[in-house]
Amino acid sequence: MKKSVILGAFAVAGLSAGMAAAGTLDDVKARGQLNCGVTTGVPGFAEPDANGVWQGFDVAVCRAVAAAVLSDSNAVQFVPTTGKTRFTALASGEIDMLARNTTWTFSRDVDLKFEFTGVNYYDGQGFMIPKELGVSSAKDLDGATVCIQTGTTTELNLADFFRSNNISYEPVPIETGAEAVQQYTAGACDVYTTDASALAAQRANFEDPDAHVIMPEIISKEPLGPLVRHGDNEWGDIVRWTLNALITAEELGVTSANLAELAGGTNNPEINRLLGTEGDLGGMLGLDGDWAERAIGVAGNYGEIFATNIGEETPIGLARGLNAQYTDGGLIYSPPFR
Amino acid sequence: MTDTNVSFVRTEQIPPSPPPAAEAGIVKWMRENLFSSILNTVLTVIAAYVIIRLLMGIVPWFANGVWEAGSMRECRDILAGASGACFAVLVDRWDHLLFGFKYPPEAYFRIVIALVLLLVAALPVLFQTVPRKLLLFTGLYPFIAYWLIWGGSLWTPLMLLALFVLTAMVYRLIGEQISTDMRKIAAAVVGLIAGVGLAYLLFIGAGELGFIANSIGTSGALNTVAYGAFWLMSGFTYLFFIPMGIFVGYAIYNSYEGGGLVSVVTALLFLYAALTFVFGPVSDGLASVVGLELQAVASRDLGGFVLNMILGTVCVSLSIPLGIALALGRQSDMPLIKGVCVIFIEFIRGVPLITLLFVANVMLAYFMPPESNFDLVLRVIIMITAFSAAYIAEVIRGGLAALPKGQYEAADSLGLNYAQATRLIILPQALKISIPGIVNVAVGLFKDTTLVSIISMFDLVGMIRGPIQNATEWIGVYWEVYGFGAMLFFVVCYGISQYSQWLERQLQTDHH
Amino acid sequence: MTTITDTPAPASFRLSSLINDTRYRSYTFQFIALVAIIATMAFIGGNLVRNLAAAGLNISYDFLGAQAGYDINQRPISYESTDTHGRAAIVGLLNTLIVAFLGCITATVIGVIAGVLRLSPNWLVRKLMSIYVEMFRNVPVLIWILIIFSIMINTTPAPRAFKGEDATASMWFFDSVAVTNRGVFLPKPIYESGSLIVGIVFLLSIVGIFAFRRYARKQLYDHGKLIPTFWPSVALFFVPAILAQLVLGNPITLEYPELKGFNFKGGMTVRGSLIALWFALAIYTGAFIAENVRAGIQAIPKGQTEAAGALGLRPGRIMNLVVLPQALRVIIPPLISQYLNITKNSSLAIAVGYMDLTGTLGGITLLQTGRAIEAVLLLMLFYLTISLSISFVMNIYNNSIKLKER
Predict the structure, then answer these.
(1) Is the model's pLDDT at A42 over the cut of 60?
(2) Which domain of life is it from (chain B) (predicted)?
(3) How far away is chain A from the Cα of C166, in angstroms, using its nearest Cα?
């Protein structure tokens, strides 16, 4: 706001030709603030707490990037986006990156011209159903009324699933998670379907969580990750490797507790490269050597972020599952820092 | 007085005996108002039944309300199965409902002051009996409110105000206070600048049109038509950019005798130059010497009911001048100007506000220069203003149409030109008739500001549907928050509509 | 508007008269306006092209032919997830029209009743109606939609409440209607062979009703004979069709909804989202119409009512025969804009998950294809067409009932 807007409004007369081709990194540094698109509120992933501070698993990625680039994990302007507005916000430059549990799909990557910089959560679409209905498999849902939270790939997966199994259903599309829960708990729909992580998160807050089961079938692959615009590879690299730094830190045992100590130098060359005591990986990114240390310093490594926001100790209570390190049988895997 | 007199003579009147029970007091009232006929009795019974049913539902729920609890679960425990409201959510999220979750709590008082001052600023506009001097404060209010709500340096609004005052002074200076010879020189200079500037802009515009045509290409019939149209416009502009520049420059120069056009253009040029070159450096410089800073708040951080209030007030105030212009344009004799106004008004009135908000949200960014940075609140303000201007234009058009033709003819016969006639005779009367209609549009618009919740802004409804209902501790809270929201809107809108009705009675000068 | 126009010597045209002469000045202004419009288009269009190029996008409506891939629950025409986005948009358009149509009718009924009752001599009814009007007029329609939707979901039973021995809910009207929080399930007529004849008989009897009423009026006007029309009309309406149905051996049967598995099957479904939106729009707009009706009635001079009373008409007849027909002329113009409001406000369907135009084209299609500009433009075009058609039709009606001044 302020001057830029007033001037902008008057610059209308200026019929500006040509576009400023400054990179996103320069823009962010000049602004001193990272504009990060998040959801309007998904418990555990991104929601403002009672004090209005954004918290969550996706939010932590934004803060890590802000810390790496601007040395201040609070220099983030969180821009809430709906399913409808998120891509326009990113494409039009309103936000620098989108960390809004967005599924990495072919058409979004290729047709909508975005670049997914990695996967921070492997999700899949699941079903939740009251125990009393006694349904054990999603294939028994013939004729059921299904509540869907719109704005994701959920509608398409659902249509595909029921069509391929040749069973009928009645879709009830709903805007917000809270309203979906309202309908589901009142019995206006039999089944509630969305990403399995969100199902678990919302079930945790029911009056009687044990009366509802999440079915074993996961009907889709939903790799969720942060994304940036096509074409600005320097910026894409920064977001990609900040995420990788968090993952590698967990793999190498770098935690917020021992970070300061390890940053003094160790005899593990990979940790040294990661934390900038050996080599100049930060310089290659256009940042300084301590970038990864700052990113990890915000809320710890990937595992710690997972545990504090959505892990089994939290009300959300998600197990690591697919999101464990590859060494523990999961899919979380970072290319080497070399 | 002797008591021997046996004949009875009444010395005072008998007090009137009370009317029969059926013809007096509450019974009579009830007979006349509730049970005057069979139909009426039936209606009364039905109405009473409806009221009792509603009360039976609401009263216990309200009376059992829990005001102190940390979460929905605690509420349920306290109620222990009884029907009751969980008003604790209002206590817990009171600040968020009113101010949004991002506005800094230590700055809430600024918004409260701004709202109180709004009432003061609105008084002279709403009531004719209030001293006219207060209008000066109304003029200052936007600058004060901007500073209070958005914070930052006081110098920004102050400088802006100073610039506007200076611009007005330049206008007066050129228009009235310098000699004709001086004005001739000024008109020549200004005419030259404006003419060359305009020709340059048009030249760029023509190139731009060609560029658009080329990027549309000729694949497909529709594209070819658009391609042709843009080339045509481009050619037209290329043909006319120099004559237009000369013509406008000449027109400005030519107006030195009367001084109307030249003073307007000079003032605008002055404002433009001052805003681009002087405004930023000077206000920054002043700010670095003497701070006068309030904590700056980004407009994205506004939220809650205050956001509805701000959107409503700003958009209505901005749309009144725009609406007047549109209404006058629609009444104009010039087909092109009339056509543009009609298309704008009918288009806006034909589409739902929500689609215009989609435009603000997903399209407007594409229409602006790549480096410009309009934030969402500003884009929404632009679209809502356009929306309400179209409706206000229709109300004012009604007012203009209601004026007897004699008023226009009288103005003509006095030798007033169009601007004078409109300003002095037509508009004051037309606006007076239109005020109740404008107030109705304003109330409708204020209610419609809740639609911004659909495009991810956290106004009152957005706060409720987003952070509050999604919050882990308040999952399952509906009635309390919606009821609260409805009540807030009711208080404000009912107040305004009562004012409108009062005003309508005041304005009613004819007697039936 | 026109200022002094008689200027001397029309032949003396000079360049300066383009500015100073009122005869030519309007051309000048329009020319300048034209240039300004072109410049604005150049500015906006140039930015659009540049921004799209920078984002690597293009404007294309090809997505309308692509497979939609999502399902819609309320389908006035056949539609499956394998159909195109274009067809999904049409389904949405029809759903918009359905809710707008239902909303307009219901709002008119509610509005007229409430408006007349606001002037009732009954104090309690009068107050109740003004509370209704003020409550709904002064609270945003979005909040009302959300509240009414919440009420529907939470106060009506779920289908599972109908199940089992100890069912907590039961169907109405001899097990033919089920009111649930998913919607209302109604019996559906099934047409077998011979139902065409029943239909024709029914249509004929409606024609008969009109003919009969015409005849009765003619008798009244020409011979002063008052023939009661109400009960014969009712009889004409029902009897022939029912007779035909019986004679032909029940060609039209009803299919009753039945609880099977998760849901009621068979019969007709009026979905909860439709009901919530429909009622919310109708009750909200009804409050505005009530005010228009009241204003219309009050615009009729009291003398009209008194004169009718002096002729011996009963209050109901005074309202129907004297006051309302005249008041209609005052009521119709604002009524048109209320109908337009209902149509436009139906776009808030998005808040309750009703799949109207905004839900399909402006919702899921936009989300899935990411074609924001195209989808929003098309959306506005659709709404503009609907609005203009409604005001066109209603204006014809308005002109037909206008007082013909001679």
Answers:
(1) yes
(2) Bacteria
(3) 15
Residues of A numbered 120-149 whose beta carbons fall under 8 angstroms of chain C's beta carbons: which are they? 132-133, 141-145
Nearest residue of chain B to residue A23 (CA atoms): B371
**Is the ipTM above a cut-off of 0.90?**
no
* CA distances, B361 to each of A194, B154, B456 (Å): 26, 30, 9
> What pLDDT band is residue C290 in, cutting at 50, 70 and 90?
very high
Confidence band, pLDDT 50/70/90 cuts, at residue C406: low
Name the residue among A38, A36, A34 with its Cα closest to residue A72. Answer: A34
CA distance C404 to B361: 48
B171–chain A Cβ distance below 8 A for any pair? no
Question: B480: helix, coil or strand?
Answer: helix
pTM of the predicted protein model? 0.86
DSSP run (H or E) holding B437: helix B427-448
CA distance between the termini of chain A: 42
Find out whether A203 and A178 touch, Cβ atoms under 8 Å.
no
Q: Which residues pair with A116 in a beta bridge?
A: A227
- Which of these CATH numbers, 1.10.3720.10, 1.20.120.80, 2.170.190.11, 1.10.472.10, describes C85-156+271-400? 1.10.3720.10
> Do B408 and C15 make contact, defined as CB atoms within 8 angstroms?
no
Which residues is A261 bridged to in the sheet?
none
Structural domains in chain B plus CATH codes = 18-62 (no CATH), 92-103+301-511 (1.10.3720.10), 152-294 (no CATH)
Q: Tell me if B345 sits within 8 A of B326, measured CB to CB.
A: yes
Residue B352 to residue C344, Cβ atoms within 8 A: yes
Mean pLDDT, chain A, whole residue set: 84
Contact C264, C257 (CB under 8 A): yes
CB C108 within 8 A of CB C289: yes
- A21 contact B CB<8A: no
> Dihedrals φ, ψ of A235, to 5°?
-70, -40
Each domain of chain A, given as residue ranges in start order, spans: 124-221
Which residues from A are below 8 Å from C167, CB to CB?
none
Q: Position of tokens 């918004």?
A: B111
Terminal-residue alpha carbon distance, chain B: 61
Which pLDDT tens digit goes with each residue over B136-178? 888 889 888 988 888 888 888 888 888 888 888 888 887 777 7
- CB proximity list for C6: less than 8 A, separation 6 or greater: none
Residue of chain A minimizing CA distance to C45: A15
Q: Are B471 and B433 in contact (CB under 8 A)?
A: no
- Decide: A305 and A56 in contact? Cβ < 8 Å: no
| Contact yes or no for B448 and C48 at CB 8 A | no
| Cβ <8 Å between C363 and A173 | yes
Please answer yes or no on whether B361 and A88 come within 8 Å at the CB atom. Answer: yes
Is A168 within 8 Å of chain C by CB?
Answer: no
- What distance in Å separates residue A148's CA from the closest CA in chain B? 16
Closest Cα in chain A to C146: A179
Nearest to residue B226, comparing CAs of B215, B236, B235?
B215
| Cβ-contact B371, B295 below 8 angstroms | no
CATH superfamily of A124-221: Periplasmic binding protein-like II (3.40.190.10)
What mean pLDDT is predicted for residues A75-102?
Answer: 85
Q: How far is A308 from chain C (nearest CA, A)?
A: 32
Name, of A59-73, B352-366, C308-322, the range with top average pLDDT. Answer: A59-73
pLDDT above 70 (res B1)? no
Question: Quick check: B256 pLDDT over 90?
Answer: no
Best to test chain A binding among B456, B459, B463, B465 (most A CBs inside 10 Å): B456
**Residue C350 tokens, joined:** 């998005």
User: Looking at residue A1, what is its pLDDT?
Assistant: 37
